[in-house]
Amino acid sequence: KFRMPTAENLVPIRLDIQFEGQRYKDAFTWNPSDPDNEVVVFAKRTVKDLKLPAAFITQIAQSIQSQLTDFRSYEGQDMYTGEKIIPIKLDLRVNHTLIKDQFLWDLNNFESDPEEFARTLCKDLGVEDPEVGPAVAFAIREQLYEIAIQSVASARESRLSKKGRRGSDHGSASKSSGLSMDLVKLFSFKSSVVRKRKDLDIYEPMVDLLTTEEVDALEAREERHAR
Question: Which pLDDT tens digit goes with each residue over 110-148?
Fold first, then answer.
């Protein structure tokens, strides 16, 4: 059944709210089992701590609740089962730190811990900014969530394909074959454990410290893109 393929079944929540000339952006995880009244408590506390206009309370609460509702809509549904080794890609800027990396993740490991992985990664790469680790963990969880949603859709398609084969003995083989190939492409990783030389650069992490001028230029570009 549907759940995040990690030890803790947490929902990645992303907020980007503009109101009355002010903007609030944030990204964090939320336990879908927590009572819904905690959402309003969190929104009120956030507005108070950041000295935002009171109107932000409703905006924040509604955005969180909407994302929680989306997550809960998948609960109880079947997920595609089988070999699921998928690539996770990082391309993040946190304050002055730019980090890029790519690695493989086992979706069948329900004891995996993105936060611990991120801490270890930052330690190995010598990243000192304490905000980078949580951002890396969130990026991993966000991608795992997307894959989990795709696995529900794949399980549904597979179920419909089987019903179609039972209902008709003609013309279903090619469709079924096509679906199987799609699932293999999406969820399987068939290759040697030894990486090819041309792939070495892809899997090599890159960390760069940006100057204040470079950060200002990037933020200005992001602001223009957002508008």
Answer: 899 999 999 999 999 999 999 999 999 999 999 999 999
Do residues 79 and 2 touch, judged by C-beta distance below 8 A? yes
What are residue 105's DSSP bridge partners?
86
What six digits make up the tokens of 71?
């997550």
Going from the C-alpha of 74 to that of each of 140, 151, 179, the distances in angstroms are 19, 11, 21
Intra-chain end-to-end CA distance of the chain, in Å: 40
pTM for this predicted structure: 0.78
Please name which of 105, 106, 131, 111 lies closest in space to residue 119, comparing C-alpha atoms: 131
The residue among 17, 6, 2, 114 whose CA lies nearest residue 64 is 17
Residue 29 has pLDDT above 60, yes or no: yes
Count of positions (residues) in the chain: 227
